[in-house]
Design a protein that fits this description.
heterodimer; A: 479 residues; six-stranded parallel beta barrel; B: alpha/beta; ten-stranded mixed sheet; 10 helices; 19 strands; 22% helix; globular
């Protein structure tokens, strides 16, 4: 295990010296998926043989699988042979002048700093300079306490043993159709390792990881928190990401050992398609956390406002005794967006607890489904779960759905589920309007109140951005 | 179709070929039955990938074969008055092992405007009005409904003319009896309540003997504008019985359906209730309780669809699982686009009394309209230890205290039942609860 700070630092600096980014840009594979494509992909990423074999095994399993059809989503079949599984965006704008003015307008509304705008809009990396120094400062600080935070490709090369030990241990290669696909062709992602007893000194964010904006369409993230460790990880950002890949299939694995606490926050704001439902990202994500040790804790917080299709169920396996799983979610669908999202809480250990808070907002022709499973295994003495799902409907043509599954095999368990669906009432609107608050402001105020319970779980600056994001996303939903 | 037909499907296929069903020879009916049989054979039994059967696996059923019918069903002696007390002298229609029993039924003395007859007789006398019920017009994927259509040999045809108030209640009794082997029967019923009419209906499922019969019952309920139906189901079929029921209710403008269901019997007992609130201001009020023990498997599927404007549904189910039992509840509320003003409420609470028992519950909301109020809740838990302690501290033995609490737990779902029937429910419940009976 390369956990000594010196080694890590050396590894980190090596990557930048090699100018890895430019390497990626220079080549790509022709569309199509077969064993040769995977071998070529693995070779280009300079992966060890075991990794290539792992990918191939996943691919062979994937071939035997069919895409899931149980979600309440309407989408055209995806042609997996039409996708290039190794490519860098070719036609990057060279400066902000070449970026779609509507995108810039959104950044303006969200108050995204100027230097970030370029990066988010996918302007070529060498045109972005400010964030490099930020990233390096962060890395130094992390290295001091032994935290490894790097890209997955780098981790495979530099921390092969760690990756080999944990990769696929939470989401197995053949777990589901999209996880198998991801396992075969994952492009890049984050790797985080927090050693025993370390409280990560800062919130880790993909912001700090240079090149994180181009992890490709098959992102793979692995976070390991050893005994007593703590980490808060932020994925994505509130600003819309420009991306030319329509299909995204990510896998995130979290491992919490004894007394470890992992907090994972996501703001997902991929391109949702236009107001007529054209375009937009298909986002199929498998996220799962394993509370492997006693007294461990995993919290998922997500704000999902982007993508044309969202298929995502961040889950917790509460294996350790007294382990705790949490899921807080706000999902917004507007125009023709469809989201089928929720969580699974699998209680295995004794005295395990889980809490689910899900807020769904549907506007326009949006379809929003909560799909959750709470399962109490026979040995999970005194398991507790509380689930609360609320849906808010804005407009005549949207839909809000709740599909909770509760399976209890232990008589000492207490499981509670409650759900409501309602719309913004005329009374609420009248109250606000009579106090001189404009219609859009009133809606955003009410929506903010509706989501507050979840926003509270977000790191502070994220929460402020998330609130603004909902406002922007709901523009034009009323009237 | 499965490459090799399972013993169950084979036995049903054989039954269809050998059967001489009432009404055969009528062109449209023969055609509908043949089509239904093809549909059933093509589908085979649903597996757990089917969302409506997710928690009810039919692998065991699939391996069993059933004799097509009980040849002596018409002559078996069965003490119906003991099996369904309180029905003596009342209007009642009795089926033993699926066959209509004129000697045990009482079809006269009904108020004017109420007609009650077995399907077999209606098919012989005036089949045409049943074209609507038996014509092949199913669009869904329910293999057992197709099987039922292909093989139903009897059932209840009950009609209430517009404006008629049909008091006192009409009893429908489905009784199982020893038949020297395991048999299957299929009953198809129609309950039609005319405009502004009212009906009290009590459905009993009783079992004499311990045979593991298979019954597949489909019931269509048509409630015309302003019609009202109070429907109570007391299901305490024989302990080895496989009982699959499906009830489809259509509610027109201002119609009201009140359903009370107490499910206690059967080895595998499933009731799929579909209530479609098609008309404006239609109301569905559902209450139910299931108490399962030993190796029982109980499955309640409650599917309510709001289509009209200003419709109301309110459902509350209580479940208890003891021993190695498995209780399944799936309550689904759908509010269709345009069904503005819908008000939907669903609650399902469950008690898990044993280490080997299991409860699976799934309260689903699908909302496609915005002027809607919808809420659901579900819980799984156990008896409150504090309350138990309180009772014991007052000298009530633990077993009796537990029993008392379980009864109270179920009582909430049965509260609205008319008092005489309520007593019957209590007695049935008392017979299945574990522990000592208080003096």
């Amino acid at each position: 295990m390369a956990t000594r700070p010196g080694e890590i630092e050396a590894a980190l600096s090596r990557r930048y010296a090699a100018g890895f980014v430019t390497d990626i840009e220079s080549d790509s594979l022709p569309p199509g998926l077969n064993e040769d494509a995977i071998r070529a992909l693995s070779a280009r990423k300079q992966e060890p043989a075991w990794m290539t074999e792992w990918r191939l095994a996943a691919y062979r399993h994937w071939l035997t699988m069919a895409p899931p059809r149980w979600a309440k989503l309407r989408l055209a079949p995806i042609d997996f042979q039409a996708i290039s599984y190794y490519s860098a965006p070719k036609n990057r704008p060279q400066s902000l002048d070449e970026v779609d003015p509507r995108l810039l307008e959104t950044y303006e509304k969200l108050g995204v700093p100027l230097h970030e705008r370029a990066r988010l809009a996918g302007v070529a990396v060498d045109a972005v300079f400010d964030s490099v120094s930020v990233a390096n400062t962060a890395r130094e600080e992390l290295a001091k306490v032994g935290v490894i935070f790097c890209s997955m490709s780098e981790a495979i090369r530099e921390h092969g043993e760690l990756v080999r030990q944990y990769l696929g241990s939470v989401v197995p290669r053949g777990d589901n159709f999209f996880a198998a696909l991801n396992s075969a062709v994952f492009s890049d992602g984050s790797f985080v390792f927090i050693p025993k007893g370390v409280r990560c000194p800062m919130e880790l964010s993909t912001y700090f990881r240079i090149n994180a904006g181009h992890t490709g369409q098959f992102e793979r993230t692995l976070i390991i928190a050893e005994e007593g460790a703590y980490v808060s990880y932020l994925e994505g950002c509130t600003a819309p990401m420009r991306d030319e890949n329509q299909l995204h299939a990510a896998v995130v694995e979290l491992v919490a050992l004894e007394r470890a606490h992992i907090k994972y926050s996501t703001v997902q704001n991929w391109y949702p398609g236009d107001e007529h439902g054209r375009g937009g990202i298909y986002n199929f994500v498998t996220k799962r956390g394993d509370c492997r040790g006693n007294d461990s804790r995993i919290s998922w917080t997500q704000v999902e406002t982007g993508s044309a299709i969202t298929w995502k169920y961040p889950s917790c396996i509460l294996r350790g005794d007294r382990s705790v799983g949490e899921f807080h979610s706000v999902a917004l669908t507007h125009h023709w967006q469809q989201a089928d999202t929720g969580t699974k809480m699998i209680h295995v250990g004794r005295d395990t607890k889980s809490k689910i808070v899900s807020k769904g907002i549907s506007a326009g022709h949006g379809q929003n489904s909560y799909r959750g499973l709470v399962k109490v295994e026979a040995g999970a003495e005194n398991a507790r779960n509380h689930t609360r799902c609320d849906s808010l409907l804005i407009g005549k043509h949207c839909g809000a759905h709740t599909f909770p599954y509760i399976e209890v095999k232990n008589p000492t368990a207490i499981v509670e589920h409650e759900a409501t669906t309602s719309r913004i009432s005329d009374d609420q609107m009248f109250y606000c309007r009579s106090r001189g608050i404009g219609e859009e402001d009133a809606v955003s105020m009410i929506v903010d109140g509706f989501c507050r319970q979840v926003f509270r779980e977000l790191p502070m600056e994220f929460a402020v951005e998330a609130k603004k994001l909902l406002e922007v996303s709901l523009e034009g939903a009323i009237g | 179709m499965n490459a090799v037909l399972s013993p169950f499907v084979q036995s049903m296929h054989a039954a269809a070929q050998a059967a001489r069903l009432p009404g055969s020879g009528i062109g449209w009916l023969d055609q509908a039955r043949a089509e239904a049989l093809r549909a059933f054979l093509g589908r085979g039994l649903p597996d757990t990938r089917n969302e409506l059967w997710k928690y009810t696996a039919l692998r065991t059923l699939e391996r069993r074969a059933f004799a097509p019918a009980d040849p002596d069903a018409a002559t078996r002696t069965l003490d119906i008055d003991a099996l369904a007390p309180g029905t003596r002298g009342a209007a009642r229609i009795v089926f033993v092992n699926g066959a209509f029993r004129a000697d045990l039924s009482r079809l006269d003395g009904l108020p004017g405007g109420v007609t009650l007859a077995p399907l077999s007789r209606e098919l012989a006398e005036r089949p045409e009005p049943l074209r609507f019920l038996l014509g092949s017009r199913q669009r869904d994927d329910d293999a057992f409904a197709w099987l039922n259509l292909a093989l139903a040999s009897d059932g209840v045809i009950l009609r209430v003319a517009p404006g008629v108030r049909a008091d006192p209640p009409v009893h429908v009794i489905h009784a199982g009896a020893d038949a020297g082997g395991e048999i299957a029967w299929h009953a198809r019923s129609l309950i039609e309540v005319g405009e502004g009419a009212r009906l009290d209906l009590v459905e009993h499922h009783v079992g004499g003997g311990a045979q593991g019969h298979f019954a597949d019952l489909v019931c269509e309920v048509m409630l015309h504008p302003r019609a009202g139906l109070d429907w109570t189901v007391l299901q305490h079929a024989a302990g080895a019985m496989t009982l699959l029921r499906r009830s489809d209710a259509q509610l027109h403008d201002d119609a009201r359906l009140t359903l009370h269901a107490l499910e206690l019997g059967g080895r595998l007992a499933r009731h799929e209730i579909r209530a479609t609130l098609a008309g404006d201001r239609a109301r569905f009020h559902g209450r139910g309780a299931f108490v399962l023990r030993d190796r029982q498997h109980g499955d309640t599927e409650l599917l309510v669809e709001h289509r009209g404007r200003d419709t109301v549904s309110d459902a509350m189910w209580r479940g208890v699982a003891d021993g190695r039992a498995r209780g399944v509840f799936h309550g689904s509320i759908t509010v269709a686009q345009g069904a503005d003003g819908a008000d939907a409420n669903l609650s399902n609470k469950n008690l898990l009394l044993s280490r080997s028992a299991e409860i699976d519950t799934r309260p689903v909301l699908e909302i496609h309209a915005d002027e809607v109020k919808a809420a659901h809740g579900a819980t799984v838990g156990q008896l409150d230890e504090n309350v138990l302690f309180y009772l014991r501290s007052r000298g009530i033995p633990e077993a009796a205290a537990r029993r008392m609490l379980v009864r109270a737990f179920c009582a909430e779902a049965l509260a609205g039942i008319e008092p005489r029937l309520r007593e019957r429910c209590d007695a049935l419940l008392a017979a299945v609860l574990p522990g000592e009976v208080l003096p």
